[in-house]
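subagent[fold] <- orchestrator: predict structure for attached chain, return tokens only, no commentary.
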Amino acid sequence: MGLPATHTVLICVGLPGLAISTEQGQLTGQGLEGFYRSGRRLLSRCRLRVAGYEPVAVQARMAGADRARFVGTLRTSPHGGPDPDVVVERVRHADGTELITLSSSTSRPLRVPIEMALGTDLADLGAIASGTSGPELPASVHDSGLRWSGPTATSTVTTDPPPTDMLAATGLLRWEFELPPGGSRTLELRVREEGEAPLRTVARSATSPLATAHASGDDPGIQQLLRTSIEDLQALLLRDPAHPMDTYLAAGAPWRCGLAPAEALAAARMTLPLGSRLAVGTLRTLARAQLRGPDGRSGMIPGARRDAGTRLPPSCTGTEATLLFPALLAEAHRWGLPEPDVEELLPAAERCLSWLLTNVGDGTYLCDPQPGGPVRCETQAHAHRAALLGADLLEACGRPGAAELREWARRLREAFRADFWIDDRSGGRPAAARLPDGTPVPHLVGTAAHLLDTGLLGGGRLAPGLLDRVQTGQLARLLGAPAMDSGWGLRGLGAKETGYNPFGHRDGAVRVHETAVAVAGLASAGYEKEASSLLRGALAASAAFGHRLPEMYAGEQRTEGSAPLPHPAACRPAATAAAAGVLLVTTLAGIRPDTPAGKVALHPWPGMPLGEINLTGLRVAGAPFSVRVSRLGLAMVEEAADGLQLGV
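subagent[fold] -> orchestrator:
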């Protein structure tokens, strides 16, 4: 029947910790509910009863990326009318703690019995996803709480104050609280894996690689989206255990709480306005995983296969990661990555570029997967960008190989504009791919947005794209038309295409990452109308999702009074979706730095569809950077590194 649904739960994230709950606040042991550490469920059941009753749930909301607040009420007097007189607040944290506060509004003292029923199966997420988590384990008394042991892990629950009574056979803890008139009492619950220290996440440390930027302006949605996106990114940060100074982003919760190279690189690239430290940690981690050897895989960054929908076989995320590596390093260099870090990572980038040229060989296109796979539209876009940005980087660092990369990119542009463009009476479209026998796949897909993402070169220039000017204009019109623009963002497959499914994660659902890429690419190419429509749709979806965008949601057409339909299996938060929130906000200012040259260019949207915007706390050249853009599209730098000059 598929994965347990994620769209109806609140997910607190502070990796490697998770706390997943329904809006009722009680942990019942059903579905995904529970406290997790490193993918293992340490506690699955935590049902609270006060004076013999479960509190009536009145509110549940996220209070931050790593915590949720649940409020319930009780009536303790049978003759007091309909008004509750006790409020029960539960604040649940991803690190395994929960604070339960009882507040009385009666004019008399209350003696309140409290019971908490606990249990766990110590299942890992894989078993829960496949429905094979197994029964609850027996508990034993442990210190001021209970203990459960399994073949591979042991978890404990302790409380402060300690319970007055413990029944291990039923997993029950009991207290008697005295509540003075108008007073309150708090109970703390601590869930731990035995032998493990209290959880200290990267987000809560002083060494987080992401700047805490702020947005303000005429549209309040941009402020909330940027704040929530940064909080989610912080919560998804992980450290390389062998190199704790290097941090990177997990792909998303709850299903993908580990490193996915392509997603980690794409997210680090979109968050460069928050500094280059996340980029360098991600690049170092993946450079250590880079393949070596004499065969055609040498220089590749390994990655899993990714389902590509019903039209094409699965793609290789390793191909995408290998092409993203040199592009991210080149752009991080422009944003202010220190020269020693660039020099350290340059050999790994050169190996990626050598892998690209080796696998293209005497041909023109890069197949994916290698060897013999189809020639995908977005793969050529990634490869073309990697070649041009890589050549720019090699030349800036005085290394050979730039001319060969530029020559191949030129030949790719000439061939692509002829081979990948399908003419029709409406003006044509790019093919989604070409099969090994040369047959084009004519479907209009959201991944075509990557053709507009050309990348940043020196001097604030954008690299040339694979399409010519006329083709770029036609693609812009297609992406802005109702078949692709759902009103909530960019569909993965056009609504008129064969096989369209609004919930298909590659066949019609809105993917936030591709929507942000399309918005930024359309704006940089001068198609503000189409970019504005997609931007407004994404911001409206953000508001509907509490400004915590999932990685995808249904591509149903937006209508008056409607709301976007969640995808039941989507990660939320997800690294690329949270990073896309940063890109959606910062692209309005059009910041194009060239730190090695000591310059930064600003290309804000001329019409500024969201009105005035003020961005503070960004980072360029390793220093705070703030910019204000007026409603007329006039930009003013209000804070920048010493000596950084404003270019054109």
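orchestrator: received. Logging for downstream: The mean pLDDT is 95. The CA atoms of residues 449 and 518 lie 5 Å apart.
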